[in-house]
Amino acid sequence: MSHATPLSPSEAPLLEVRDAAVALKSGDRTMVSGVSLSVMPREVFGIVGESGSGKTLLTRTLLGLQDDAYVAAGSVRFDGRDIPSTGYAASARKLLGHSIGFVPQDPFSSLNPSMKIGKQITEAIHLAKGWPMGAEKTREAAIRLMAEVGIPEPALAFDQYPDQFSGGMRQRIVFAIALSQDPKLLVADEPTTALDAITQRRVIELILDRSRSHGLAVILISHNLELLRQSVGRIAVLYGGQLHTVVDAGDIGTRVVHPYAEALFACIPTRDKELADIRSIPGEPVGAGFGLTGCAFSTRCAHVEAICRTAPLPLNGTLAPRFSACILGRGA
Ligand SMILES: Nc1ncnc2c1ncn2[C@@H]1O[C@H](COP(=O)(O)OP(=O)(O)OP(=O)(O)O)[C@@H](O)[C@H]1O
Question: Exposed, middle or buried, 283 (CB in 10 Å: 0-12/13-18/19+)?
């Protein structure tokens, strides 16, 4: 079910993030640095990294949702407009009500357990449209949306509470709320982690179908490289709060790519891989906050040379669609 979106070079990106850094307000510690990436309209884009690499912090801060962190450097442009650096979080949050749908890492917590799901979805529709649609019309719109995300018997489900649904169904309710705005971009942070493998696949299929049918661009964030490899067109790889590569999903496992992307791929069992070919990465992961001097992966990299520890990390300020930050130029 790979989703290699053909990118049209003449089209402007929907999202452009240039040399972005994210710092914590307390102590002013920079956790993520030098991240540049662009997402095209209708593209399904992945962000992968081990736990602690900075995926959630980066994404939530870029969306204006992380109260204790801020965009400390760089620029962000969405749908042809710069998000001003002064008052950044408030401006970014305004987009969330209309142009960007967000599914957080813990979607269950974003549902109100004491409110019928129909009401939660109609409220989201009212907020998104900004004008009263009339009770019957809104109910119809909500039921249509619930059917679109695969909730069986939506008219009946409309009057039920979140705890009357399975994890996979609750996940779909959260998607219905995120999609109620008819956004241009859906950002889903580990949307399937809490689900069993079959439900996981169904939820990903749902996202990909919606992208195809509604021209929705998607950023799928996951620690699961195999899931992303099978589902998205390009993948940004984070490590230690650094952006290590932006790579075509189809190139991982078939061509020389950035050493960290290669090492991540070597860890995962795939259908065509022998057991002996599966290798874990030696050493301990480096947490976010490494900075831009030297490569954060140098302590574990099979190709390391002395320069990897001291040279400035290459950045992708020109927003090339494919990029490797390997100081030795591997995967470039
Ligand atoms: N509000 C915060 N205050 C202090 N440290 C934080 C805060 N948020 C994140 N961090 C730290 O920043 C680093 C990156 O965290 P983040 O949650 O972004 O990682 P992640 O890649 O999304 O991993 P996971 O998949 O486990 O969520 C971690 O070391 C985390 O402890």
Answer: exposed
Is the pLDDT at 4 greater than 60, yes or no?
no
Nearest CA to ligand 1 atom 26: 51
- Cα of 100 vs its chain's centroid, Å: 12
Ligand 1 binding pocket includes 234 (Cβ within 6 Å): no
Question: To test ligand 1's pocket by mutation, which of 47, 57, 193, 222 has the most ligand atoms within 8 angstroms of CB?
Answer: 57
Give the nearest ligand 1 atom to 49 CA. 21
Q: Read off the amino acid at residue 127.
A: L
Q: Tell me: the pLDDT tens digits for 63-80?
A: 999 999 999 999 999 999
CA atoms of 224 and 20, how far apart (whole Å) = 24
Q: Which of the listed residues 22, 30, 31 should we mutate to test ligand 1's pocket, taking the one with most ligand atoms within 8 A of CB?
A: 31
Residues 222, 200: contact at Cβ < 8 Å? no
What are the backbone angles phi and psi of residue 13, rounded to the nearest 5°? -60, 150
pLDDT band (50, 70, 90) for residue 172: confident
ipTM comes to 0.91
Q: How many helices (H) and strands (E) does the chain have?
A: 9, 11
Is this prediction's pTM over 0.95?
no
Taking phi over 0 as left and psi of -120 to 50 as alpha, with beta for the rest, 38 belongs to beta
Parallel, antiparallel, or unpaired for β 217-222 and 69-78? unpaired
Question: Which residue is it, tokens 């040379």?
Answer: 305
Is residue 308 a contact partner of residue 298, using CB atoms and an 8 Å limit? yes
| Longest CA span, the chain | 68
Any ligand 1 atom below 6 A from CB of 24? yes
Answer whether 11's CB lies under 8 Å from 59's CB: no
How far, in Å, CA of 140 to CA of 197, rounded?
32
